[in-house]
Amino acid sequence: MPHNILVIEDEPTLSRLLTYNLTQEGYAVDTADNGGDGLLAASGRKYDLIVLDIMLPGLNGFEVLTKLRQQGDRTPIIILTARNAENDVVQGLKLGADDYMTKPFGVAELLARVSAVLRRSGSGDGGAPSEEAAQEKVIAVGGLTIYPEKYEVSIGGETIELRPKEFEVLLYLVQRPGMVVTRDDLMNVVWGFDYVGGQRTVDVHVSSLRKKLEMNQQSVQIDSIRGVGYKLVIGKK
Ligand code: CA
Hints:
With 237 residues, this protein is an alpha/beta fold.
């Protein structure tokens, strides 16, 4: 049974991006684009997790959060706050949110938070964490061992030091071996769809990641596809 996630977000581009990536991860996703519909959806059925934007038309995220907690609903909630809104984070956590993401954010980081919050909550059933939930997800590819929830990569037991964004780039490429991934994809997933730093940021991180991989082993490499993006190749010298 997949975990059910409700996304309450009025920005269509972000809502679609979240839905797409959460679905790819194997979650079942419902969406609402305003606070009232979101509250109705959350009250109407049991979700394992809710992603809740704060700035919403109708009821805002704080009001939705307050009403749900007043109803005794303990569903884990990750709130999405605007940049430079530290007070919103504090207020959200006080009102009973479990975690938060500040916009702009990369979907990769949100996916890691979703997985961590679900694990902490014992899949949202209020009971002890199931064995499956407690078991850590590990990806083994071309001699690399990747621990998505710990942001760690190792080769033969040796940890490779990666920056968080380098890790997220690697994780995204590793999940799509042999496929061309565009700079735009990486930008959206790792840095956030409204990130303003430019594609040069992607190139800098990929080139640093590539060097670290090359220093440690040769069976996984990142090829540049000129004018398009990158491709992870396994087993090539
Ligand atoms: Ca909004």
